[in-house]
C-alpha cells in the first residue's frame, strides 16, 4: 500500500503459532535492531487491525495466518499497539522484505529465555502461551449498519 496512507499511531504485532512454536524475525533497524521480535507493523488507512496483522505477517515473513484472538496491547496517549494470536495457515517463514535479516520458528520456552528476544515480545508470547486474551465477536452497530465491527471480550 502507499506509504502516505499509513496510520502511524496504530500498529499490530502477531504471535503466530505452528506446531507448538512461534514465529519471530530478527529486526534490522530502529529500537528493535538485532533483536528477535514479533512480525507486525502499522495499519493503513481504512484497514482493520486484523487485516493489518495478516498483511504484515505475510509481508515480513511470507507466512499466511489466521487471526484468532487479541492477547495483549500497549496503550499510551498517542498510540496503540495491539498484539494478536494467530495460527499458521501456509508458508515456511523467511525474510520477505528488508525488515528482518532472518525468520525463525522457536519453542516458546526458548524464546522466553533468550536475551535477543525483545521484552514486549516475551510478554506477548507468555500471554498467548498461557491462554490470556479475549476472543473476537463480530457485530454490526445499529448506528453504523454499513460498518462491520469486532468486539473483543
What is the fold's blueprint, element by element?
Blueprint: E1 6-18, E2 21-27, E3 36-37, E4 40-44, H1 49-61, E5 64-75, E6 80-90, E7 100-106, H2 108-113, H3 119-129, E8 136-140, E9 148-152
Parallel strand pairs: 1-6
Antiparallel strand pairs: 1-2, 1-4, 2-3, 2-7, 5-6, 8-9
Q: Would you kindly provide a written description of the structure presented here, covering whatever features stand out?
A:
- By secondary structure, the chain is an alpha+beta fold.
- 20% of the residues lie in helices and 44% in strands.
- It has three helices and nine strands.
- Strands 1, 2, 3, 4, 5, 6 and 7 form a seven-stranded mixed sheet that branches.
- The chain starts with 5 loop residues before the first strand and ends with a strand.
- The model has no long low-confidence stretch (mean pLDDT 91).
Count up the helices.
Answer: 3
Mean pLDDT: 91
The helical percent reads 10-25%
Distance between the termini: 31 Å
Element string (H = helix, E = strand): EEEEHEEEHHEE
Shape: globular
Helix and strand content put the structural class at alpha+beta
Return Rg in Å: 15 Å
Annotation, overall tally of beta strands: 9
Low-confidence stretches: none
Sketch the major β-sheet.
7 strands, mixed
Q: What share of the residues does DSSP label as strand, in percent? A: 35-45%
Amino acid at each position: 500500500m502507499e506509504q502516505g496512507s499509513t496510520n502511524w499511531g496504530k500498529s499490530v504485532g502477531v504471535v503466530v503459532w505452528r506446531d507448538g512454536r512461534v514465529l519471530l524475525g530478527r529486526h534490522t533497524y530502529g529500537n528493535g535492531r538485532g533483536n528477535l521480535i514479533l512480525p507486525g507493523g502499522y495499519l493503513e488507512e481504512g484497514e482493520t487491525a486484523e487485516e493489518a496483522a495478516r498483511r504484515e505477517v505475510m509481508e515480513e515473513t511470507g507466512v499466511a495466518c489466521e487471526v484468532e484472538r487479541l492477547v495483549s496491547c500497549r496503550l499510551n496517549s498517542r498510540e496503540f499497539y495491539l498484539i494478536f494470536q494467530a495460527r499458521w495457515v501456509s508458508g515456511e517463514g523467511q525474510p520477505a522484505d528488508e525488515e528482518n535479516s532472518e525468520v525463525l520458528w522457536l519453542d516458546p520456552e526458548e524464546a522466553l529465555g533468550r536475551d535477543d528476544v525483545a521484552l514486549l515480545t516475551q510478554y506477548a508470547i507468555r500471554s498467548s502461551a498461557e491462554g490470556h486474551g479475549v476472543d473476537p465477536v463480530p457485530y454490526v452497530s445499529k448506528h453504523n449498519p454499513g460498518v462491520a465491527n469486532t468486539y473483543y471480550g
